[in-house]
Amino acid sequence: MPIEKKKDYTLSSVKNALRILRRFSMEESELKITDLAKDLDLGKSTVSRLMSTLASEGFVEKNPENQRYRLGLSILSLASVCTSNFEIHKEAMPVLHQLVDKTGETAHLAILDGLDVIYLHKVESKHHVRAFTHIGKRNPAYATSSGKVLLAYNEDHYVDRTIAKGFEHFTNNTITTPDQLTKALAEVRRKGYALSIEEIFEGVVSIASPVRDYTGQVIASVNIVGPMQRLTERSIPIHTKKVIEAGKQISARLGYRAY
To answer: Which of 4, 139, 182, 198 is surrounded by the fewest CB atoms within 10 Å?
Structure first.
């Protein structure tokens, strides 16, 4: 009896349109069709047709000055709906503002998306020297304090996949071996927070703690980020207590009760 092959019901045109939308970023907010075709390994005519369709629905628009495409207002509308329905986003906002007031540093709420940490919310520091981050920005989880918290408290397969993918060397302090990662995550679980001292950017320090849902599962992390001139060896322990408390406050607002 012949074995029936598993059917792939994915619509390639829809998948490619979504790949195009995901290609836009804060660093590259406007793109040419030729660049998209090359980056996504698609034909120019295919990309052109997809962009025309996306433009007709308001998901992209063409900049008449340089003929490049950028995201349209339909994306903003969907993002607003998504953000407003994130319970964690709503519950974390007041705590993040308090954390910034207490520490003077930029605060983030982050989640794990694949092997990257992605920032859901950000409250900016009032200092002139600020962290170059933005909502939606992705960073490799192993190179950030938020990411290390999320890796430490999630399933082992995230760590296994991170190791299998390999490590990019950002600074002299970046984790670049499986042994370094394993030891770092064990330390996070032991201490209940994570530090990142010049691990992804020179001169930048971040401190993160876990955020739990009502079941006790770590679903996000809260952190502060600032320059080494302010986040010093003397001030880090003081600010760490405030970050840990912020994580506990958000967790409590989500229904978590520690017994």
So the answer is: 4
